Amino acid sequence: AQKVTQAQTEISVVEKEDVTLDCVYETRDTTYYLFWYKQPPSGELVFLIRRNSFDEQNEISGRYSWNFQKSTSSFNFTITASQVVDSAVYFCALNRDDKIIFGKGTRLHILP
Amino acid sequence: DVKVTQSSRYLVKRTGEKVFLECVQDMDHENMFWYRQDPGLGLRLIYFSYDVKMKEKGDIPEGYSVSREKKERFSLILESASTNQTSMYLCASSPSTASSYNSPLHFGNGTRLTVT
Question: Binning pLDDT at 50, 70 and 90, where does residue B83 land?
Answer without folding.
Answer: very high
